[in-house]
Amino acid sequence: MSRQTYLVLRALSVRALHGYGIVTAVLELSGGRVRLGAGTLYGMLGRLVARGLVEPSGEEVVDGRLRRYYRLTPAGAAATSAEAARLAAAARTAHGVRAPRPALGEA
Amino acid sequence: MAEPEPPAPERTGTPAAQERFERSARFWVRAYPPRWRRLYEDEVVTLLVDLAQPDARRIGAGAAWDLLRTGWGVRLRGRPDPLSWVLYRFFDLPLRRCVDWVADDIDGRWYLYRRHVPVWLLLGGMLWDSIDPGAGVIPGGLAFLGFLVIVASGGPLLARPTRRQARRRHLLDGDRPPGPPFYGRPA
Question: Among B47, B77, B91, B131, which one has the highest count of C-beta atoms within 10 angstroms of its own C-beta?
Fold first, then answer.
């Protein structure tokens, strides 16, 4: 799972969001480092909907513009938890690795 | 319905500028295949409007490139592999793994001409074969050429029943094509 996909799923794990809400939530979650473009986001949403990880949860028209909300499915929530656990394990492993000791004879 | 979210930034441009921006956005969204656009175009345009500078008159180069890149990515990923394409185009075999691509193909422009690619190739080959390098095109070749012109001009008249037959055969005549939803189906 790519970092961007994980961040989108994490954003949707809090509540249902529409496109702009997802972009701002991802920006916040990533500390301002990941700014999704419209094409990238909807390409990703299409794939996540097709894989059954995300589903639409309603839509509204504001100022003549369509806003469709998306939320996680149970499978999406499970995939997000699994990825979070994997990342946490990877971080623990990285922290557990000691700095290499100098070889014998070195100062 | 979901909880209210922070509102999108308000646009300050004139209605003409906003309309121009939207036209620009819809132009670039055409990088995506038609069926995908029917599902997501309005949402994408809304998001592009939300993300743009309040007085922007057209979408920026970065956003345009993002749409081109991802749009053509969707097109390429949705295409059948070459062998499946040959089986579909030349032998009319159903492509259950690429139903969205098939639906776009059947509903797209020039379907009849694409549908009869094998016939065109056969006729073209016969025409080529009938050309005598010394004497130019012999009468048989002219007859084939005339036949090609007649078939080509009658295309639009024949396209409707052909499309109907193709939908019945490849999409089981349903509102939604069978098979995995490659583009996702939000509705």
Answer: B47
Residue type, A91: A
Predicted-complex ipTM score: 0.78
Entry pTM = 0.71
Handedness of CA B148, B151, B155, B159 (dihedral sign): negative
Please name the member of B70, B180, B187 whose beta carbon is closest to the beta carbon of A40.
B70
Residues 6+ apart with CB under 8 A from B180: A50, B97, B99
Q: CB of B114 within 8 A of CB of B89?
A: yes
Residue B24, Cα to own-chain centre: how many angstroms? 20
* Residue from A8, A65, A12 nearest A40 by CA: A8
> Beta-strand (E) ranges in A1-107?
54-62, 65-72
* Interchain pair B2, A71: CB under 8 A: yes
| Best CA proximity match to A62, nearest among B1, B150, B168, B69 | B1
> What would the pLDDT profile of B76-103 be if each residue is shown by its tens digit?
888 899 998 888 887 888 887 788 888 8
Q: In sequence order, what are the residues at sequence separation of 6 or more whose Cβ sits closer than 8 angstroms to the Cβ of residue A9?
A: A1, A48, A53, A54, A72, A76, A79, A80, A83
Q: How many CB atoms lie within 10 A of CB B16?
A: 9
B30 to chain A: closest CA residue: A39
Identify which of B109, B93, B87, B73 has the alpha carbon closest to the alpha carbon of residue B183.
B73
